[in-house]
Inverse folding.
């Protein structure tokens, strides 16, 4: 009895061990919570790292400005200026040829017939839906047209330069052949203008898409000025018209290679030729157009 009275009851020993067990459980729980937090923090660091990398790339692109433009838009503006300047080249050359025809004694009737060569630019709305709808998808919606047209214009100019001595001479000029040759050039460049105008909408960013019309106006004016006024100045120093035309023929061929090396970022919504014409006629029926 004395021994039993001296020993503590079992319930008292259990009660004394419960706080220790609870302390162990709380420690294990806190450790597991800290591990979970560490895992969550590591998992959350990856998006943060990616965001920081993206932010740095965006900041780097934002710093790459030229004349107040991002790098991609600056390249697009340079390409547009080149293509629109080349559009003005045959315009200036036709004015130079008309000036020489007048100097060689061409009649007003012949000069009037030669002026009809520029009609394709006024009639390009008739085949514009075809240029917009027909293309090779793997090559690009606009490059499908721009690159071969540039090459064909270059070859036509080289042909014209070689035959210019027979077409324009002191004995008489073949005005009809000259008119059809320049009509063909204007037809090609009108089609190129359709493709380049559409390309400018996807080439430039939405913020700077308005620069396309500026490039058009400046480029065609520069091309016309160089090949008309510039040629008249060079001709006074002995530069022959045939050599001048040959130079621009090689420039057109080289530009086609440059267009081939330029990647087209994205294509517009694909539509059939019939749907493109239907959309064009719906625009023509608008009250503001009529």
């Amino acid at each position: 009895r004395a021994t039993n009275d001296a020993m503590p009851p079992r319930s008292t020993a259990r009660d004394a061990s419960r706080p220790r067990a609870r302390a162990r459980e709380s420690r294990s729980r806190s450790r597991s919570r800290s591990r979970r937090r560490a895992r969550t923090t590591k998992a959350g660091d990856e998006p943060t790292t990616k965001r920081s990398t993206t932010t740095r790339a965006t900041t780097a692109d934002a710093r790459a400005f030229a004349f107040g433009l991002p790098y991609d838009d600056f390249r697009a503006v340079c390409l547009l200026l080149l293509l629109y300047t080349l559009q003005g080249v045959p315009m200036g050359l036709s004015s130079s040829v008309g000036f020489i025809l007048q100097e060689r004694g061409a009649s007003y009737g012949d000069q009037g017939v030669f002026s009809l060569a520029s009609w394709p630019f006024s009639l390009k709305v008739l085949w514009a839906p075809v240029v917009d709808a027909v293309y090779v998808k793997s090559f690009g919606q606009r490059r499908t047209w721009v690159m071969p047209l540039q090459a064909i214009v270059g070859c036509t100019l080289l042909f014209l330069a070689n035959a210019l001595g027979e077409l324009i001479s002191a004995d008489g000029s073949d005005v009809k052949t000259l008119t059809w040759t320049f009509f063909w050039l204007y037809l090609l460049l009108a089609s190129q203008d359709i493709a380049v105008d559409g390309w400018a909408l996807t080439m430039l960013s939405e913020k700077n898409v308005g620069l396309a019309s500026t490039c058009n106006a400046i480029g065609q004016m520069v091309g016309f000025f160089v090949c008309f006024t510039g040629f008249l100045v060079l001709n006074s120093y002995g530069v022959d018209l045939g050599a001048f035309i040959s130079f621009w023929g090689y420039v057109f061929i080289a530009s086609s290679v440059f267009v081939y090396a330029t990647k087209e970022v994205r294509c517009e919504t694909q539509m059939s030729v019939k749907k493109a014409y239907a959309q064009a006629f719906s625009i023509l029926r608008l009250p503001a157009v009529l």
